[in-house]
Amino acid sequence: MQTDIEKHSKMEDVQGAFVQQKNRLLNALDNAKSIIHDLQLFNKDWTVRYPQLKDNHSSSEPEHADDTFLTADASKAARRKCLRRSLSFADDPSFQADVVVTPSKKGMPRSLTLASIADQSEEPQDDDDEERLISPSDAADFHVFRLDLKLGSHGSSSSPAALVTQLEKNSIANLLDGRIAAAMAHIDKLRSRVEDTSSKVLVTGDLNAGKSTFVNALLRREVMPVDQQPCTTAFCEVHDAAENGGKEELHILKEGVPYNKDDESTFTRADLSELDSFVSENENVQQMLKVYLSDGRSPSESLLNNGVVDISLIDAPGLNRDSIKTTALFARQEEIDVVVFVVSAENHFTLSAKEFLWNASNEKAYLFIVVNKYDNLRDKAKCRRLVLEQIKQLSPRTHEDAADLVHFVDSSAALQSGSTSFESLESALRSFVLVKRAKSKLHPASTYLTHLLSDVDLLVGANAIVAEAEAERAREDLERSRPVLEKMKSTKDALEESLESIEEAGATRTRSKTKELLNLALDRVGQGKPGVEKSLISLPPYPGLLGIWEYAQEVRKTLLASIDIAVKLAEEEARVTTSGGVDKIANLGDEYLPEGVERSRRVFMPEAMFNSLADKKGRRQSKRYSGTGGAIVAGGMHNLGIGLAQRNDMLETTFFDIFDVQHQFWVTFGEKGAVDEDPNLTALSVVSVGLGALTMVGGKTLGVRGLIEGMVRVTDLFGNETVRKWAAPVLGAVTIGTAVYLVWELPSTIPKTVGRRIQAQLVKRDETLVGANGVVSQAVDDESTFVGAHAERISRETRKVLRLASWDLRGRFKTAMDERGKEVKGAEDVERKAKRAVEKFREIERRAGEVREVAELVNSA
Ligand SMILES: Nc1nc2c(ncn2[C@@H]2O[C@H](COP(=O)(O)OP(=O)(O)OP(=O)(O)O)[C@@H](O)[C@H]2O)c(=O)[nH]1
Q1: Predicted ipTM?
Q2: What global pTM score does this model have?
Q3: Atom 6 of ligand 1, residue of closest alpha carbon
């Protein structure tokens, strides 16, 4: 027999255990909610993938149909194979990995390991295999997060490939998001159910079985009206007065209005003493009453004031044909945790009682049965046997636990003087209410938590595998692309330098080559020979004295044309040089551009250089140098533009092309040297001027006769006496010279004369380009001459082409570098994100493990 102290401490144990479990579970629920909330948030950052685990048929089949003869090792291996699954993702069936799934078991998370890794680490704790094998299919399934992906109208939607067309990664992530949200809402519900400490005990039974007497005995007070006649038609719900601010009171509920003890409009307040009369006056009305009572006993004794659960006792009407349905309905309600069925020992179970018990035992597996009025019985043993037999049929589970759940008492005796049997009933009822409550309220929550955490394990395990794979891929990408980028960064300047030097070298070479060619040509022309080789152009034949004018014209034309050819040759040379430069730039491209970058597709066409477009440009530029009188001559392939031989100003033949008298004088009378440009005001110059005047006489039709006549006229000029003194020898010399000249020298002199004049004309600097102070800057000096201008033009063209080619390469280099930069940055981002994801998933796994430990404890309790 239990002493009071023992009972007391047992009760406290039960209460303490309940409170502890409840708090642990609440804590676990909160943590689980925060974990999945984190997962939900992370799902926005990193699309959480939905894994699908399939049987790996190739290896899950046992290799031997009869494994009786399998060695222990082989059997272990076969068992492990059973847990092998093929992991893929709904949104990406191309991802396939063999994994080993470890089902969650007590204190251990469900885990996914890549098969390759699992095979390497031979599991030392193989003893547990049996346990793991209990539900290998369970291991692969989601409980809470299971998505019904068989959506859409496509019949073949069960195949993952078809799913991909319907659901993208994001929509799956959204579905998952929805599931997580639903799980969070469910956790909230579970939480409030666990937190809700109210519990209702419904006391019902046959008419007049003594239910009210029993309730009074429990309360140790005569509160409920007791009558020998069946009287109670009301549902009296007894609460601790503490719930009503410590005030004992009767609340009469209004029909059809939801009761709220803080809202007076939902009930009528009455004094507790009025209960008796109220019940007897309203015998035929099914009334709902709330009775607030204070129980002075200690929490370890009192049922109402137990310190753990807010218990309310409901004294229901006795069962008869009218009330059985109402009461049955009442008993089915969620908040009814315990049904106490009072049966009279004298009558046993009536038909109504049997019907009610049968239904109620389906709803609540365990019923608390009070066999009342037991003291008055003579054959107590018989009664006990018969009642228990009946219970066995009506509620087998209750019968199994009869020692705790079926009590034979006498309520009226207990109410008067107390009884040990009633006290043990009370204690059994208390622990039944409290413990059952733990089972009925805490168990579903912890089971749900276990499932949820197991799903979290599967989800994060699979996602960690993908994230790791992604991080690995990013690392590989980085290993490949980072050195390329580094190399490009470090060689950028060298490339730049090489390009500049190729450009510069090309332009310099073209300039000097052009100068060399044209200077040579001008020298030759100056000597009366064509500026280029004879094979390219030759002087016209000498037609004789009478065709001398035309001859001079032709010679001039030919010599000019030969210079034009020299210009073309210089351009040709420039093309070769430019081609070389372009090739070098292409080689630089091969050297500096990373693999896989498209090389320049531009094909350099040397013939396109110096084309008409360039001409136009040239001419436009020439405007700036208009003073050179078009010294910039574009030759071009087809002799487009204005070559020297096409320029009227250059073609104009003058008398001096035939008789360069001044020159002849210098040749004849010594003082070789300053032949050209400085006609001093000497007598000779006077003669020269006179002879020059002859041109006015003849013009183009000037013949020999005209020439001589002109010369005679000149003599008239010399009227002056002093002049006459030295004019005669001069004139004589001129005459003799002229005669010799005419006969012998003219055919060879004319080309020389013409050539010299052309040379002089072309070598002459453009005066307009000389600065006001008379200083000619080097560049201008260069460009102001025929050779300089061409050298500049042609080298500029070379530079232009080379610059284009190097710009192209620079552009490609820059683009390639930018792309590699982006690639590297992208891969770095992916790696960082994936690493963070792996960390996050591992962290969630760890936290889930911690919560599981707590939840698992609740379960095992
Ligand atoms: N001897 C004895 N009489 C009891 C016992 N319990 C109840 N009674 C008597 O049985 C009669 C009915 O008691 P109630 O408590 O009113 O029974 P009830 O089940 O509440 O009745 P209804 O609510 O009307 O169905 C009363 O006269 C009680 O005094 C008991 O344990 N022993």
Answers
A1: 0.97
A2: 0.59
A3: 210
